[in-house]
């Protein structure tokens, strides 16, 4: 007998058992009724009925109705809206107003507004930096307004010395410089760097990277020697010169930095180092 036939036979046993029990009960009832209808003069004692325990009739549980699988209707996919093409980036505003406003926002707004020039800012910055890296001053391309107070000297023992009031002329400029956030300045430089590179290519002096120009310009100023005060000067009726030949032999940018005074020069150098280090990272 195969496993399938055995399984099928075992599954039929409960039903066969129930049928057999019902058959026995029906026969017993039938024979009991037949014996009552037959007249007898001396009835014989009936044998004791077998103590058969009737099992309750078990009603088979109804089979579950077969599930009717309804055909799945295709799910309507929502219509996909076309993805809009990204808009082209707005052109960088390189107008003087936009550049100056961006610079003012890096530090003390009102103070810086008094000193920064209003026209051709990016070109002035490029030309001035390129000249500074060549140890020259491009006065016509300065990015800051000159101080309104005049350079002052005093006479003592038949000699002329720089008055400390001359150094104080540059104190507001130094305070404005210190107020400028270095990281914001570098970020601003990165924003305008493509335009700066284009201007530098027009100015052109054979160098390809304007970063090198800035690095050379800053290092040149940092090489300016520190001089104790008072500082002796002389005049040839046109301009003042340093009496010390070592100082007079310095480049025009370095001599200009000396004129800001020892304390201002120290603060300027500290800011320049900070900017140089940030550019190097």
Write up what this structure looks like.
The structure is a single chain. This protein is mainly α and 281 residues long. It has 11 helices and 4 strands, in the order H-H-H-H-E-E-H-H-H-H-E-E-H-H-H. The chain has a 4-stranded antiparallel sheet with strand order 1-2-3-4. Helix 8 (210-222) packs antiparallel against helix 11 (262-280). The longest helix has 34 residues, at 3-36. It starts with a helix and ends with a helix. Residues 1-43 have low confidence and may be disordered. Pfam families: DUF3014. Residues 39-88 are annotated as: Disordered. This is DUF3014 domain-containing protein. Keywords: Membrane, Transmembrane, Transmembrane helix. The chain crosses the membrane at residues 12-32.
Number of strands: 4
List low-confidence stretches: 1-43
Which geometry do the CA atoms define?
elongated
Strand content: 5-15%
Q: Using only CA atoms, what is the Rg?
A: 54 Å
* Main structural class: mainly alpha
Order of SSEs, N→C? HHHHEEHHHHEEHHH
User: Helix share of residues?
Assistant: 40-55%
Output the strand order for the largest sheet.
1-2-3-4
Biggest sheet: strands, sense, closure? 4 strands, antiparallel
Helical segment count = 11
Mean pLDDT: 79
Report, as a whole number of angstroms, the end-to-end distance. Answer: 88 Å
């Amino acid at each position: 007998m195969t496993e399938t036939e055995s399984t099928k036979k075992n599954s039929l046993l409960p039903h066969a058992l129930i049928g057999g029990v019902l058959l026995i009960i029906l026969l017993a009832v039938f024979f009991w009724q037949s014996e009552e209808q037959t007249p007898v003069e001396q009835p014989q004692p009936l044998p004791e009925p077998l103590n058969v325990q009737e099992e309750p009739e078990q009603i088979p549980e109804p089979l579950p109705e077969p599930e009717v699988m309804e055909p799945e209707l295709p799910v309507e996919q929502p219509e996909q809206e076309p993805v809009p093409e990204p808009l082209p980036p707005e052109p960088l505003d390189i107008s003087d107003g936009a550049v100056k406003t961006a610079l003012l926002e890096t530090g003390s707004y009102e103070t810086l507004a008094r000193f920064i020039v209003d026209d051709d800012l990016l070109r002035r910055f490029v030309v001035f930096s390129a000249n500074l890296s060549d140890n020259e001053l491009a006065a016509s391309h300065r990015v800051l307004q000159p101080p309104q107070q005049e350079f002052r000297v005093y006479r003592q023992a038949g000699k002329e010395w720089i008055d400390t009031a001359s150094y104080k002329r540059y104190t507001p400029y130094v305070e404005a410089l210190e107020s400028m956030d270095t990281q914001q300045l570098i970020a601003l430089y990165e924003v305008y760097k493509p335009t700066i590179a284009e201007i530098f290519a027009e100015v052109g002096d054979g160098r390809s990277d304007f970063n090198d120009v800035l690095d050379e310009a800053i290092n040149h100023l940092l090489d300016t020697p520190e001089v104790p005060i008072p500082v002796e000067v002389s005049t040839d009726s046109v301009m003042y010169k340093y009496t010390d030949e070592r100082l007079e032999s310095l480049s025009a940018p370095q001599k200009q930095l000396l004129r800001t005074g020892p304390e201002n020069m120290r603060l300027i150098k500290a800011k320049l180092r900070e900017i140089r280090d940030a550019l190097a990272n």
